[in-house]
Structure formats: C-alpha cells, structure tokens
Inverse folding.
C-alpha cells in the first residue's frame, strides 16, 4: 500500500527544487554584467520511483514517481569555442606587439616627409650641386656644411630614438614575463581550491569562471593548450565537474614541444607544480638569448603571443650568434649605410683641395666613432664648421674654378655601394657582403623604408583579421555562456509557476490528510 504522506514528500521536493532553480536564475540576473561570468542552470533529475524492486516490495500496479531533485548546478560553457577564442587571442597578442613596435618605428623614420632622411639627403646632394657651380661662394659652402649637419642630426635622432624605443620594449618583456608568472600562480591556486571542492561532489562554478578568465589572459601572452584532468583518487567528483587545468606551452604551429613543457602541470596523480618564466639576455649584444620555462631553456623562440612579439621586436640571439629582430635589424642597416657613406665621402674629400690650398685637404668632412655606432656618432668635422673654405671642392688645386672634387662628392648620390673605393679591397668585398648593401645610398634607404612599410602593413592587417575573428568567436561564445535577461525572465516565470503548483499540491495533500485524520470513521457518532 502506498503511504498517505507520499504525495506530501513529492510536493515538498518540487517546492525545494523550484526554489533552488529560482535562486540560480536570480544569481544569473545579478551577474548579467559580470566579466567572465558563465550563466548557470539547474540540472533537474527525477527521483527513483516507488516501490523499488525487492522481495518485500508492496504489490502495486506499477512504480509511481516520487518527484524531482536538483542534481547539479552547472555552468553553460563550450570548450571548443574557448579553444578557438584563445587561438585568436594569441594571434592578437603577437601581431599587436609587432604592429605597435613597427608603428613606432615608422613614426620615428617619418617617411616620406620634408623632415625625413630622404628629404634631408636630397637637400645635401643639392647643396653639393650648388657648390659645383659656385666653388668660391662662401654661401654655397655654408649651405653644404649646414645641410651636412642636418644629415648627421637626422641619423643621430633616428638611432637614439630607435634605441630608446627598443629599451622600452625590453622593459615590457620583463613586465610581461612577470605577468605570465602571476597568472600561472593564480591558476595554480585556483586549481588547488577546486581540488578541495570537487571531490565532495560540488561544482565550483565561480572558481571555474575565474580560472577561465586567467587562461584567456594567458593565451594572449603565450601560445598554450588547456587540458582538463581529473586525478584518479578524486573522491565522489560529479560527472560534470570540469577538473583541474593542465596548461601546456605550444609551438607557433600548434604542436607540442618534445618533451612537453607544462606551465601548470597536472596528471592523474594530482598537481605537479608550475613552470615560471625567466628571460635572459646576452651580455655583449643585450639581445634576448633565452627564455626559461621552469627547468627548460628555449633559444629558438618558436612560441607565439605577445611575449614572442616583443622579443622579435626587441632583438634575440640567433643560433649562428648574430642578432635578429626588428629594431636591431633597422639599427644595423642604418649603421652599415651610414658607415659606408661616411667612409666613401671622406676618402673622396681627403683627395680634394680646399679653397686656396696648395695641397690636398687630407681631412674628413664627417666624423664617426671608431668603436661605436656610425649612425649614432656621425657629425660634421668641427674644422669645416669653423671654416667652410676647408671643404675640398677642387680636384687639382684650390683654385676657385676647380669643381671636379665637388662633382665627385655630388655623384656619390647615384654611385652604387659596390663601386665604392672603400670596398675595392678583398677585406672591403667581404665587408660589403656582410653588410648586405645593395644599390646606391638613396635606393638602399628607400628599400629600407619600403620594407618597413610592408612589414608594418602586414602586421596591422593580420592584427585586424585576428581581432575580427576573435570578436566573432567571442560573440558565439557569449551566445552560449552569457546571460540573456529575456531568457532568465522566462525561466523565472516558469520556475515560479512550478513552485506555486507544488505549493498547491501541498495544500491539496493537506486537505486529503485532514479528511483521513479528522473525517474518516466519524459517521454515525
């Protein structure tokens, strides 16, 4: 026989479950604008029917339902969309760092403008042409000296400004390394907290959300792969429990390192610790010569993300011992170009005659440091700045009409580096190969600016594409995980009506019990 109080228990379960569902709905509404919050839902499960199978089970027509129970409160999340978003976020970090650094470089080079090196060099070449027509004119000589100063100042500015930005990028590398370590520590701590909750059968949704926000941030800094792991000895963890995060560092192409490098390490036996990031620098060049992840030191920098973008901009030591990177490359190109130009210009100038001189000039027009950067140290000889008549315009004598050497100086504009006197020796030929100088000064510099523009535009385009894709994936992710107030209001009405119906059921059963207890057997008294 079925108990008279069974209906009361069934209705009570309905009340309790509907109440829990309403509270969960209220939590969703409250966190509708909370960053990283994933909407939650109550998974309803019908309870076991009555009677259960057994020798002493009452003989009834069939099992009767005993109500409903809230099995779990689960957050709504799509791991596939999470993985897609983190892939695009990683590209945003990498191309964002590259785009920003190259944009700053473009701003410094400032081409094509009237204040750029190309325009300044054109003024210098024109001043030399003017000198060929008026070798005895002091004004023409002063123009050559002053435009020479402009050339030197422009190159000095380029080099010093690029070096300053490069230093700032280096500081950012250290900041990002510390940020990565902080995130790794926070994820590890959340793993520990989760490991203390899940074995008891609970679902720590709020901790999951906090951890996923940190993982999203980490994915922008370095390329990672996230894997959920439930240790073998994990209590009575729910089937829908997410588990602990094992975070692996990945190559640019998405493949694993051999052996794997885990930033946060978890396996079936439990948490195994973390791998901290440490950046090391070469003592000679100052470039990054390694990134240490835990006990593994990487020198190929074959990962992606914002950290990799900053390292590629700042400079890194290659396997052959040379230095690569956007800023070191540009500084080296400016230095090689300046050094070749100054040496050749000075050789021609030394062979000429100053105004009124009876012997060859023998002095340099430009001066550069012997043990430093040519672009950083270039300046016009103070002797020439003090007396512009010292400019060697003549080739045979210091006569006012002799302009042959001035022509040679002016013709340097069109002269190919391979035709420079300074590169005619065996040592010079090897230097030319190492410097990779091609074309003339003007065409080589135009090529530098052209390549910079292409690289910058490519980085900006890739950043834009990655941003669009990430926004699209994030929108899809939000459609799954974010709170829809319209949907929550619908659920609120649904669960409210269910609660009211269960309450009405309690009232009905109460009336039945009242009739049984107080009304049965009283007829005829």
């Amino acid at each position: 026989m079925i108990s008279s109080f069974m209906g009361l228990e069934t209705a009570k379960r309905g009340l309790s479950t509907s109440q829990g569902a309403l509270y969960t709905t209220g939590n969703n509404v409250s966190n509708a604008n909370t960053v990283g919050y994933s909407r939650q839902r109550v998974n309803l499960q019908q309870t076991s029917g009555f009677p259960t199978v057994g020798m002493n089970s009452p003989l009834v027509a069939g099992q009767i339902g005993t109500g409903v129970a809230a099995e779990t409160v689960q957050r709504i999340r799509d791991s596939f969309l999470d993985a897609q978003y983190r892939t695009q976020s990683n590209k945003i970090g990498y191309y964002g760092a590259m785009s920003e650094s190259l944009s700053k470089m473009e701003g410094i080079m400032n081409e094509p403008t009237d204040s750029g090196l190309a325009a300044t060099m054109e003024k210098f070449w024109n001043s030399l042409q003017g000198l060929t027509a008026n070798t005895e004119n002091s004004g023409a000589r002063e123009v050559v000296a002053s435009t020479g100063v402009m050339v030197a100042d422009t190159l000095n500015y380029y080099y010093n400004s690029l070096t300053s930005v490069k230093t700032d990028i280096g500081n950012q590398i250290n900041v990002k390394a510390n940020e990565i370590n902080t995130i790794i520590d926070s994820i590890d701590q959340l793993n520990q907290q989760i490991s203390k909750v899940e074995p008891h059968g609970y679902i720590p949704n709020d901790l999951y959300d906090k951890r996923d926000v940190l993982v999203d941030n980490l994915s922008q800094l370095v390329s990672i792969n996230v894997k959920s792991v439930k240790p073998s000895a994990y209590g009575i963890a729910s089937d829908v429990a997410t588990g602990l995060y094992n975070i692996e560092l990945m190559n640019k192409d998405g493949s694993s390192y051999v052996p794997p490098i885990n930033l946060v390490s978890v396996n079936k036996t439990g948490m195994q610790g973390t791998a901290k990031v440490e950046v090391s620098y070469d003592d000679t060049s100052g470039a990054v010569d390694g990134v240490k992840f835990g006990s593994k030191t990487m020198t190929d920098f074959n990962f992606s993300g914002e950290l990799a973008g900053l390292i590629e901009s700042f400079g890194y030591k290659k396997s052959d011992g040379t230095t690569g990177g956007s800023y070191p490359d540009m500084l080296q190109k400016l230095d090689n170009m300046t050094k070749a130009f100054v040496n050749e210009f000075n050789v021609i100038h030394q062979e000429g005659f100053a105004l009124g001189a009876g012997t060859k000039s023998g002095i340099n027009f430009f001066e550069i440091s012997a043990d430093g950067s040519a672009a950083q140290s270039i300046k016009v000889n103070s002797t020439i700045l003090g007396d512009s008549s010292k400019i060697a315009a003549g080739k045979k004598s210091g006569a006012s009409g002799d302009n042959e050497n001035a022509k040679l100086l002016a013709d340097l504009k069109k002269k190919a580096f391979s035709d420079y006197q300074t590169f005619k020796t065996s040592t010079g030929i090897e230097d030319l190969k190492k410097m990779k100088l091609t074309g003339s000064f003007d065409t080589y510099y135009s090529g530098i600016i052209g390549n910079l523009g292409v690289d910058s535009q490519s980085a900006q385009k890739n950043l834009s594409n990655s941003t669009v894709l990430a926004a699209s994936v994030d929108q899809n992710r939000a459609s799954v995980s974010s709170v829809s107030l319209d949907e929550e209001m619908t659920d609120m009405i649904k669960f409210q009506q269910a609660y009211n119906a269960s309450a009405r059921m309690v009232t009905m059963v109460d009336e039945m019990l009242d009739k049984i207890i107080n009304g049965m057997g009283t007829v005829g008294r």
